[in-house]
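CORE FACILITY INTAKE
Project code: CF-77B
Contact: R.S. (postdoc)
Sample description: multi-component assembly, two entities in total
Requested service: structural model of the whole complex
Turnaround: standard
Below are the sequence entries exactly as provided by the requester. Do not edit them.
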Amino acid sequence: MRYAMAIDTKKCVGCSDCVVACQTENNVPIGYCRDWVVEVTDGTYPQLEIEIRSERCNHCDNSPCVRCCPTGASHYEDGGIVLVTPNECIGCGACITSCPYDARYPHPDGYVDKCTFCIHRIKKGLEPACVSACPTKCMYFGDLDDPNSPVSEILKVRKYKTLIPEAGTGPQVYYLI
Amino acid sequence: MREEIIVSGRNNYLIDPHLHIWHWQIPLYLFLGGLAAGILFFAAFFTLMGKENKYKAAVRIAPHIVPWILVVGLFALLLDLKHKLYFWRLYTTIRLESPMSWGAWVLMLVTPLSFIWSAIHIKRIFPKWDWKFKILKDLEAFFTKQKKAIAWVMGISSVILGVYTGILFSAFNARPLWNTSILGPLFLASGLSAGAAVIMLLSRKHKERTMFARIDIGIIVVELFLIVHMFMGFLASTQVQINAAELFLGGPWTAPFWIFVVILGMIVPAFLEVLELKKFKIPVVIPATLVLFGSLMLRFLISYAGQESRWLY
């Protein structure tokens, strides 16, 4: 099993509903976010292109954060989800420093926090909060090993990219382009 | 003109607009750890060479400060932790892939060794020292007998400690400025240089001082060589590493790095030490303090600038 997410940059309008859905679902402390919207404008005026991406932890195959964690608090769950166990985390910040996506942050309670792919919802057969809240239905979630999962289906027919694959992390959030 | 403008909605505390999760505690701890490694290495080395009597300050005097600087360093490290009450989790597991785990366990070995080394040489500082209890006297006699074995373990573990202070940074591929294995030997050399400086400060014998001045000059030459190679490596590497090197080559950290670390921390003290060897009278406190200052600044600048370097996407 390998959970992954695909996000359609052509459909995303950057409304930040995913951000608010995540903050509400996961009780993210005020002023912090586990997912966020990035808007990239590229080109020469007036020929400009815009790409809107909803970003979050990439739940990498080769996660530097899991590798550098001195206590094993950062670990892989079933399906490749990268999680932090709060009462094993000493808050040293090594994982925060090791993440090329800066997807982690220090929770005010001391431990390090990040996107969990809403593992508590997946276990109940639900989609992650961000996916279910998206008004343009631009996000797809599922098991890459299952050829009929929404994420496998969309990756079969669309071109996609991942963020800085050259960092060697094996990111598992795919952006449809 | 073609431009790319990236606007992010993320504004997490200590993460944005650029990473600044590690403050003064980490570089201070890395400096003290490197310094401790330097002093212990020289103590172990000259003990194993059988030159204890020739280099008294190195073997019997300077190591007394090591337990204290390690305690201060460990306290700084504790202050850096954001989930402090769980610090003991470091010692419920060994994670070979994690440099921080290595560091925690090496310190677990080096800190008691430094206390033992200090204890078996305490009478060199306080001749009337009395351990009072028989068991302590027996322990002292036992450890004194095992001194060579302790020196071996201490010498090897101090090198691991010295290299680790650099590897801690270089293991992070996410920060291109740190992602060079040269930081390991560079920080080890810097720690040895700082250790030699402290020994020069504490030594009362001219011969020992000139010996350590010679050692220090050699180490500084190696450091300069490593720094040149570090930048050559960066400039011959990918765009992110070129950008990282430019933080020190024209970017905002250029002046502090070249003035404080390279000129004041390496070239000037090496020059003064050469003059000393040429029989000029140079107060030892000047080159020694400059070396210590440069060593501290190296940690601070690499730590702070490294957190500003990042991947582009």
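Facility notes:
- The longest helix of chain B spans residues 206-235.
- The longest strand of chain B covers residues 3-8.
Invoice: internal transfer
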